[in-house]
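In this section we turn from sequence analysis to structure. A common task in structural bioinformatics is to predict how a protein folds when a small molecule is present, because the ligand can shape the pocket around it. The inputs are simple: the amino acid sequence and a SMILES string for the ligand, here S-adenosylmethionine. Study the lines below before reading on.
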Amino acid sequence: MSGDSRRSAPHVARNAGPIAQVLKGVLPERGLALEVASGTGEHALHFAREFPGLLWQPSDPEPAAVRSIEAWRVEAGLFNLLPALSLDARAAEWPVPRADAILCINMVHISPWAATAGLMRGAARLLEQGAPLYLYGAYRRAGVVTAPSNEAFDESLKARDPDWGLRDLEEVVAEAEKNGFGLENVTEMPANNLSVAFRRR
Ligand SMILES: C[S@@+](CC[C@H](N)C(=O)[O-])C[C@H]1O[C@@H](n2cnc3c(N)ncnc32)[C@H](O)[C@@H]1O
């Protein structure tokens, strides 16, 4: 695997620290953490280092993303970072039979709604009672004015793909509840993002 496959997303350097702080109150101390939509793999590297009690399983459906995650992983040589899997959240079966936590960062608004619905169904299959499902990203919220930067972001997403765009948090919560998850907490994050933590009922 060539180091040339490594991709880098500048936002990861900014948000990985604040996300890790929230995850300290969400993730179990031990077990398997499945990351859906790992993208470049830089979050996986950061969190595998930050949470050495967890086995970190990165994944993404895009072959170039899987190559990037693998290139970072091989270079880092972290004992608890597993080889990247090809995983599409919409699939009826995922290549992981169970997990103790599932995370999905910046996918819900940058994919068709079917990906979010698939994520909730898959998380319900893999997680046992009490296990967390953690989402991070930009959302609209009832009664809260969407920041101008997020309105512009929403427009740019829809210009790239009309099926993308900021989701209403209430719709995401309803989809999670339909699949057996209860909302645990919502944390405001830098740059008008939210951490949204659910637990399997
Ligand atoms: C904006 S990137 C976010 C990557 C990374 N989590 C981050 O925050 O840097 C969105 C990711 O969602 C992935 N994605 C899109 N549709 C998906 C699906 N149906 N199942 C799983 N991942 C998907 C893309 O391949 C891409 O890597």
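The chain has a mean pLDDT of 96. As an exercise, try to locate the residues that line the S-adenosylmethionine site and compare them with your own expectations.
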